[in-house]
Every structure is written in structure tokens, then in C-alpha cells.
Amino acid sequence: MSRNRTRIAACLLTAGLAFASLSAHAADEIVIGASLPLSGPLAGFGNYQKWGYETAVNDLNKAGGLSVGGKKMRVKLVIRDDKTDPSVVASNTETLISREGALAMLGSCTPALVNAGALVAERRKVPLVAGCDPLGAFKSVRKWQYAWVMFFDEGDLATAPFKMLAELGLQTNKKVAILHDNGPDGQVVGGMIWPDTAKAGGYTVAQKTSFPVDTQQFTTMIAEAKATGADIALVDAIPPQAIAIRKQMASAGYKPKVLVMEKGAEPEQFAMALGKLADGVLVGGYWDPSFPYPGAAELGKRYETETKQTQSQHIADSHAAAQVLLDAIAAAGSLDREKINAAIARTNKSYVIGPVKFDAANTSRIPITVMQWQAGKSVVVWPKDRANGKLIFPLPAN
Amino acid sequence: MPNLEVVANSLVSGVLLGGVFALTALGLSITLGVMRLVNLAHGELLVGGSYLGYFLLRHTGIDPIAGLALVGAAMALLALPLQWTLIAPLAAKGMEAPMITMFGVSVILQNLFLLAFSADTRAIDTPYAARAITLGPVTVAEIYLIGFAVSVVIVLLVHLLISRTPFGRELRASSSDAAAAAAMGVDVRRVHALTFALGAACAAMGGVLLGTAFSFTPSSGGTYLLISFAVVVLGGIGNIFGTLVAGIVLGLLQSLGAVIFGDGYRDLVGLVLFLLALALRPSGIVRRAGHS
């Protein structure tokens, strides 16, 4: 009996020590948590973000760490995979705060994931900075106090193709086919802003169809778009669906003159999976290494050297989000979350993503550009003052 | 309601795609019919085939359709040790233990794909994947037509293998009564191993076709597993001809559902049919003419 008790006590002690080692961190160490989509449909974004967050933190640690109240502290970044699932983001955020002792959080990607984590952070009064959540979808959830987002506004993104068509004088039959997923941003961009902007600009919305985010077959929807003869196709879908839709458009013989694929056409895997079929596809963008922001060119080059992959704008928004948070902790001069939150609110500085200054809704707007895939490279084609390539028009025949 | 041309395109595409569903479901059907194995890793074997086709094209330049037999053979060889080590030892322990084991295999395979190939979305990029064929008022994807033709040929070949060869005779005997077959000298363990390998090969070849027509990620298998289950239940477990008919019927009805309710409701139509078939005709919609 007593031997059993000894064994049980030993097991409990071992488990306790193991648990303590999981949650403990050094006194001169700050823990920052992040839940990212490293697997699932949005993994294409999560891997860029991981690099951006890690690079900002590693650079800071190499430079001696973060200066807080005259004391140098190392920053430990703890990242958990949320599998592109909002409920996992919520539980990850809870775990990172309560078990890992995260002082502050960095956000995931897309409204569904960022907002899920932000709601937990808000409840726990833990500052969270994110850079991959369109502002309208973020602001629509609630009046935020502890969550901060710097990204583009859906209104800017959705109106950009129409502004580009008008400015460049591109000739189309002014018929628009809108195909969008029924996720939060898909419904805002595809369900509301695109149709409204099209009508206001004198375009005819010949088709508007929504679909769930796990569908792969779009035969009927594309046949309908083709039957309308719309010269402009606007698609809002995540990468697996965007790739499937582009292939099925080609194999159905539907050749619009302008093809915009928001979200899905952003990561490099879109162009890699589609080859020549990606050429000419447009997608809203907000960053390129050629932009005149501090460290932009270096960051893009560094990513490509280190990973042997083409850079993405998500390395910039994630890198900047991490820097905004780290700067705020230093500016607060304290590990008090309220003071850090107040310091984030005071941010007014130019980062790799551009100038960051939060408004009353805790958002900082990044101006939008239009990018186009050309021979496997993403090229900025609009507005003229930022373009680093010439628009291919109409969409090339495959 | 869409115009007639759209309806015709959708329905013909549905029939053609249904042929591919039949091929992907065939593997599940025969392992269930012969081994009583609910192979919950079937979707991952299918995705494994997509990856094999993708890398075959990328590294050797071999067209994935031309190399379909190669992919099937490779997957069969990979599946054999899986059967020997994980499924065969559980053969006498009822249906639950192998089913749970295959669920574990499914999770492990998904994670292995993730580790080996990253979570990136991929697609097998061939010229015919993006070409259209127009026959009068109907325009369909060339890959759907190729997929249908290839699938029907493979399904017929499997039918011939099972109905006209000594292995097929042993397989049918093992399916009807494994104990009696063993008493008559049939090596049931060998038959089960080869059946599992054949099922995996069919799934992998279906995966090549679907990976060419659509896109895939390490976690794409789940959707196709559900479709395959619906086809197996509609067609009757172990019924090869029934599987082919059920695949085509499911493809057609899914497309009809898409025409009426939109593309997003294809799977809903499939699952409703699955439940209806389970409730009303659990032995399948196709009358069994003879052996599986």
C-alpha cells in the first residue's frame, strides 16, 4: 500500500515538474504568443506570418533584447498551429495566455481566425496586434479595447479594380460576374461592396453567387458566368478554391477579359499550382519590396535568400505587427498590460508596411494596390505611382 | 433557373465526374465487401495518389494519366506493409478495431503529408486539365471526359480481374465465407492483403484524376471519403457494377442539386442520398446480378 502511495506521489511530482517546466519562463524573458494557420487551407498565409513574426523577434534578441524600464529582456515567441480553425485559435489563445504566460499576442490571418483570437484576448485584457484582418470585418465584431489591426479596408480593396478599369480606360462590356465564398470577408467584399460599387460605376451585375468554403466543384456556377458573357469576373475565395475555380474556368471555356481573385491568388502557391493559368490574374495587394518604406527592399530580399521562395506581402504585415507590439512594450517601460495597450494606441511611426497610426476603432489603414501574376511573379500594376510593371490586358488565353 | 445550355453542361459534367467518383469508391467498396474493413484512411490513400501523380510529372515529366498504372502499382506496394503490420493482426477482432486503426492511420498520413509536402495547395498541371471540349451545345472539361473514360476502363478491368481470374475466385470465396474459403485451401490472409492493395491502387488512381481536375492539400481526403461512402452505400457493398452506376447517379444528382440550389450544395445532395439509401435500400440501388 505504502509502495503504491510512493509511486503515485512520484508520478504526481513528475507530472507537476513537467507541467511547471512547460509554463515556466525565465524572469528576464517576455513571452509573446501567436496562433497561426500552419496547416489547413490557410497554411499558405500562416507560413509567411511565422517567418515575419520570428524574424522581428530574432532580430531584436540578437540586438540584445527588449529594453523595459532600463532592463534588457529576451523575447520568447511561442507559436501554436490553429489548423485554420477559429475554435482552435480561441483555445490556442487561451492556452498561450494562461499556460504559457504570454504577456501579449500576435494575430492569426483572415477575419474568422483573427477575430476568434482577439475575442479571447479582449476578454482576458491582453493586448493583441494583428496584420491580416480586413478592417471592416474587424470593426464589425465589437468596439475593441485590446485588439489592434493594421491592414487594408475592404472598401478600398473592393473598389480598386473598378478604379483601375476607369483610370486605365480598359474596354469591357461592363458586365460583372461575382463569385464569392460565404466567409465573413467574402460576404462583405463579394456580397455587398462589389455589387454596390459595380452598380454605382454603371456596371451590370450579371451574376452573383456564393458558396461554402469547402467546395471544390464549381461547374454550374462557372457555366452560368460564361452564359452571361461577363467580361469581368470577380472571385473571392481561399487558395484551394481559387485554384480549382481558375482551372474550371479554363476547362469550361470561360475567358473573361478581367479576372480578379481576392485572397486565393495572394500566396505564391497559387501561381505554382496553376503555372501559365495564373498569368493575368489580378489580386488586391498592399505591399511590395519596391515600396518606399524603411527596410522594405531588405525584408523581401532576406525572405527570398533564407527560404528560396518568392516573398509575399504577409511577411511585411506580420513583421510590422510584431515590431509595433515590441516597440509598445519598450515604450510602456513596464510589463503592465494596460500600459502596453496604451502605448500601442500611441503608435505613430513608419514601419516596413508603411506609416502606422491607430484610429479610435483600433485600426490603421494600409493603402491598397492591384497586383497581377505575370510569369510566376507578382507585379504591382496599379496605382500608377506605385506600379512596377505593366498590366496584361485582356486576360491571356490559356 | 439557369438556361438550358448551363443545365446540359452541368448534368453532362456531373455524369462524367460521377465515373471518377466510382473509381475512387471502388477501392472502399471491395475492401469493405471482402475484408469487412471500413477504411477511414481511404481519403488519404487517394490524396497520396494525387501527390504521386504530381511528383511523377514534376520530376520525371511522365504524364500522370499515362503513368496511372505506375501510380496504382506504387500505392499498392506502399499499402501492402500497412495491411501486414496493422490490419492483418486485427482480422479476428471484429470490425471496430481495424476501423479505429484506420482512423489513426488517416491522421498519421495527413500529418506525414504535411511534414513532407507542406500544407500548400497543389494541382497537377497538365494542358488537358484546362481545355474545354465542345460538342454541339454542350461544353465540358476535357479532364472530366478523360477521367470518365479511364475510370470506366479501370472499373471494367477490376471486374474482369474479380470475375475471370483465379485470384478473383479466391477473393469472391473469401468475401462470401472466409472460414469456408480457408478450409478449402484459400490463403485468406494473402487475399486480404492483395484486396487492400487493389483498393489502395484504385483510390490512388482516382486521386490522380481528381488532383488533375481540381486542387488538393494534405487534408483534402475527408471530402472524398464522404463521397466514396455515399457511392458505396448507393451501389451496394462490394458490387462493382453497382459502384459504377452509383457513382454516375451521384454525380448526376449532385449536379442537379447544384443547378437548383447552387454549387455549394452538391455535398448536401450527396449526403441526403446517402442517408436515404441507408434508410430505404441498405443493400444498394442496383440489383446484384451475381458475385462482386
Description:
The complex is a heterodimer of chains A (398) and B (292). The N and C termini of chain A lie far apart (78 Å). In chain A, the strands form 4 sheets. A 7-stranded mixed β-sheet of chain A has the order 2-3-1-4-5-6-14, with helices on both faces. In chain A, strands 8-7-9-10 form a 4-stranded parallel β-sheet, with helices on both faces. Chain A is of the alpha/beta class and 398 residues long. Mean pLDDT of chain A is 91; it is low at 11-24. The longest helix of chain A has 22 residues, at 2-23. Chain A is elongated. Chain A has 2 domains: 8-152 and 292-367, Rossmann fold (3-Layer(aba) Sandwich), CATH 3.40.50.2300; 156-285 and 370-382, Rossmann fold. In chain A, helix 3 (86-98) packs parallel to helix 4 and helix 6 packs parallel to helix 7 (184-200). Chain A has 13 helices and 16 strands. By secondary structure, chain B is mostly helical. Helices cover 72% and strands 3% of the residues of chain B. Chain B has a two-stranded antiparallel sheet with strand order 1-2. In chain B, helix 5 (142-164) packs antiparallel against helix 8 (188-213). The radius of gyration of chain B is 19 Å and the shape is globular. The N and C termini of chain B lie far apart (41 Å). The model of chain B has no long low-confidence stretch (mean pLDDT 90). Chains A and B meet through helix 2, strand 8, helix 8, helix 9 and helix 10 of A and helix 1, strand 2, helix 5 and helix 10 of B.
The CATH topology of the largest domain in chain A is given as Rossmann fold
Mean pLDDT of chain B: 90
How many domains in all of chain A? 2
- Overall CATH architecture of chain B: Orthogonal Bundle
Structural class of chain A: alpha/beta
List the uncertain runs of chain B: none
Total beta-strand segments of chain A:
16
pLDDT under 50 segments of chain A (min length 5)? 11-24
Tell me which oligomeric state these chains represent: heterodimer
CA-atom Rg of chain B in angstroms: 19 Å
Q: In one word, what is the shape of chain A?
A: elongated
Order of helices and strands of chain B: HHHHEEHHHHHHH
CATH class descriptor of the largest domain in chain A: Alpha Beta
Radius of gyration from the alpha-carbon trace of chain A, in angstroms: 23 Å
* Outline type of chain B: globular
How many extended strands of chain B?
A: 2
Tell me what the CATH architecture of the largest domain in chain A is: 3-Layer(aba) Sandwich
